[in-house]
Amino acid sequence: MKRLYYAIWMCLIAGHAALWGQDHAPSMVFDSSVRDFGKVMQGEMLKHVFSFSNQGTGTLEILSVEGTCGCQTTTLSQKQIPPGQSGQIEIRVDTALLIGANEESAHITTNDPRRRSVFFSIKADVQPEIGVSSPSIYFGDVSEGEQVTQEVMLTVMAEKSIRILSAESSEEDVAVKLESIPGSGGKKVKLIASHKGEGKTGYRSGSITVKTDSTITPELSIYLYIRNFNR
Predict the structure, then answer these.
(1) 86 and 162 in contact (C-beta within 8 Å)?
(2) In CA terms, which of 33, 116, 119, 132 is 20 to 30 Å from 10?
């Protein structure tokens, strides 16, 4: 019986110590953990400062800060935040290599017993600086001597001063050329790909490489798919 009383007494002491430890622990509180920039142009550097406070009774310690990708950097104002004080973390995301809907996060590890891990994130819908009407061109069966033409429209966004310089096909039997749309000031360029009923029989794939003078998008790739069994 004495052993039972002793075990109960030790459990009560441990429980009280745990509660006391939580009462004297840090508590990380933040206004918002997500910043949505909406639509942005490719190449923009996105920056946002997230603020948080320590509303506990112990010192809040930031143990580590890790980004989720190489296109992101983080800056922490301080690693230790006393009770009642605030801290900040700045997240910067380079959108040069991003296209479409993206969410880039920073993972923070703290000594807050109720919230060991926190994610701060930046969202953005990154618009490419050069729009492509289709990412690929498909040529089906073409009779020998016949020529089939496909077109893709390339559009430089109004905010950008980019020139589309050249286009080259990886397939010898697919010829490509560029035609600037009159009145567009070079902002709209038509890529014309022509395939003759020549070359290898069967199914194969390749690409058309479009070169520009952009430092962000120096090249664009348009996929080629050729199915030719008509022999």
Answers:
(1) no
(2) 116
pLDDT tens, position by position, 52-62: 999 999 999 99
**What's the CA gap between 80 and 86, in Å, rounded?**
10
Burial of 154 (0-12, 13-18, 19+ CB in 10 A): buried
In angstroms, the CA 88 to CA 70 distance is: 21
How much is the pTM?
Answer: 0.72
Q: From the DSSP assignment, how many helices (H) and strands (E) are in the chain?
A: 1, 17
Percentage of the chain with pLDDT > 70? Answer: 87
Residue 112 is predicted with a pLDDT of 94
User: In angstroms, rounded to a whole number, what is the distance separating the alpha carbons of residues 5 and 106?
Assistant: 49
pLDDT of residue 31: 83
Q: For residue 196, which of 148, 140, 141 has the smallest C-alpha distance?
A: 148
Instruction: Examine the fold and report which residue of 127, 160, 192 is the final residue of a domain before the chain moves on.
Output: 127
CATH classification at residue 215 = 2.60.40.10
Asked if 193 contacts 174 with a C-beta cutoff of 8 angstroms, the reply is yes
Q: How confident is the model at residue 150 (pLDDT cuts 50, 70, 90)?
A: very high
Burial-class residue 226 by CB neighbours within 10 Å (0-12, 13-18, 19+).
Answer: buried
Give 149's Cβ-side CA count (13 Å radius). Answer: 7
pLDDT at res. 3:
55
The verdict on residue 16 lying in a domain is no
Structural domain boundaries, residue 52: 28-127
Pairing of strands 117-127, 34-41: parallel
Q: Classify residue 228 by burial, with Cβ atoms within 10 Å: 0-12, 13-18, 19+.
A: buried
